[in-house]
Amino acid sequence: MAAEKTLYRNCTLYTGTRVIRGGSLLVDGAGVVVDAGGGQTVSVPADARVVDLKGRLVLPGFVDVHVHGGGGWDMLRGTPEDFAGAARYHAAHGTTSLLATTGGAPEADTSELLRHARRAIEERNTGGADVIGVHLEGPFLHPARKGAFREEWLHPPDFGEMDRYLDTSGGTIRIVTLAPELEGGEAFVRRLCALGIRVSVGHSDASYEQMLDAVEWGARRTTHHFNGMRPLHHRDPGAAGAGLMLPALTTELIADGLHVHPAAIRFLFDVKGVCSVCVITDAVAQAGLPDGVYGSVETSGGEIYLSGTRTLAGSSSTMLGSLRRVLSYTGRTLENVLPSFTAVPAREAGAASRKGTLEAGKDADFLVLDESLELLETYVRGRRVYVGAGAAYEDERGGDGSC
């Protein structure tokens, strides 16, 4: 017997390509979108459960392609509990898919993360956001732009080490952040691109001219743009200038208002356009925790630094918080900035065929929010993984449907 379908009706539906007032979203029992459109155009099966959302907003779930942890859970520790905990934490802030991101650690630690990420991807049972792949941030990074990474962890490209990562990951590595100007960079970038892996320039001291070379070799994105790279100067545009000027490059953005000034966030959207900006959190385990000292890092007012320094050590940002800030900083409309949180990162993760928009045949990853953009519910593949205050609704086929 087939599982029942559910129709979510009477909502303002943001499919990712259009906005539909009085919209409806039909989801099958396997958690796949059957139809999305106006209330009069979506046919309702006789046995479908019908849920009245009372005019609330329905958005595609956010896709975070650069995240290390959150809520005290640290994917860098590489345990199943950390993966599940981080996935639940970020689902409570609107993320429905993520790339588990490494941190330039020793090979043994990185391999441990890759093993557990592979299991989480295969099992698909985190109870929160889907882990859909891995973002390998290092260790092939430039020491001059190491940020919070320890210099002894960083080194030029090593084909043997990369092959071991590829083998351990079982083909789940989607993005590799590296410094292409390091010795062996050209051959390394070309090989990764030939394998279908997205090469991202980050923690790099590359000049503008070296960035031109990297793009020719196949690099197509930058990691946390403006941060951890040679900055823009009018006589030396550097990696930051190249990201702004080269249409081939998509730019990651930490939109917490700290890593990048609000005016620079607005400038990036104006220059690159929404389809070339990929909003990320770069969240670490301490995101969402009270102020204090946590080992080598300390947090204060949501800011996270290496203890005793002013070196940023990741972010406490969430995707929903970032959306609110981008709307405020840019003055743009929700439908105008939404692709940078959904369709663009899904593309960057190689998951655009099933994530990022609400269309027939794609996973039913969606958010229900009120008009103030307060998150009421998060659904991953049709299954509710988070419910907030004020989320009660009416099930028209019987029962109160309260959350």
UniProtKB/TrEMBL annotation:
Domain Amidohydrolase-related: 57-383
The EC number(s) this enzyme carries: 3.5.1.25
Domain of life: Bacteria
Record InterPro entries: Amidohydro-rel, GlcNAc_6-P_deAcase, Metal-dep_hydrolase_composite, Metal_Hydrolase
Enzyme class: hydrolase
CDD domains with a match to the protein in the record: NagA
Keywords: Carbohydrate metabolism, Hydrolase, Metal-binding
Pfam families: Amidohydro_1
Molecular function GO labels: N-acetylglucosamine-6-phosphate deacetylase activity
Family that this chain belongs to: Belongs to the metallo-dependent hydrolases superfamily. NagA family.
Name of the molecule in the record: N-acetylglucosamine-6-phosphate deacetylase
Species annotation: Cohnella cellulosilytica
Lineage: Bacteria, Bacillati, Bacillota, Bacilli, Bacillales
